[in-house]
Amino acid sequence: MQTRCRMGYAIKQARGDYTLGPASFALSNEDSRDATLKSAALEDMEALAAEFGERVSLGAPKGKRIYYISMIENDTPLKLRAESGDADYFHSTALGKAMVAFKRGERANVHLKSRLTRFTEHTLTTRRQLDQALSLIRKYGFAIDREENELGCVCYAAPIFGWGDIPVAAISVSVPTER
User: Fold this and answer.
1) pTM as predicted
2) Residue 59 CB neighbours (<10 A)
3) Integer Rg of the chain from CA
4) How confident is the chain (179 residues) per 10-residue block, as mean pLDDT?
């Protein structure tokens, strides 16, 4: 691992674990990056699915949308629109907000459309509302989508940080509103 760190393929974090370094992403295309993220997150996704018994999703940014890379369904799957390979907007999803909240400066704006589209009556549609939500996400370390993207579903998400503490993906747990 020391060699990988010196070459930029890994970074040793203060708490003793390792994250992917910039050299890893420089060598990969989107497909291999997604496969790497899916492989790295699978154990944690399975643990969350076992603990909560709910749908667990992994998402990563691509332009102005957050793409669902992988999903683990529970025994009684939620009837949601999103499936692996689909995409949603950052401002209306817990996955997207978890990532945007920790992007530095103008990098957050790269993922946000100038007009925040309304999907339900709960969707945040003003920049002021979104900025307030992002502030709370930074404070608590996780994001919540309270039926902002789809009625009947509440999602909780946390970012996955890569090199330089920049979010590279996010994991969410989706729960029916009645639960």
Assistant:
1) 0.76
2) 31
3) 16
4) 78 82 60 76 91 92 87 72 69 93 70 80 91 94 94 94 84 90
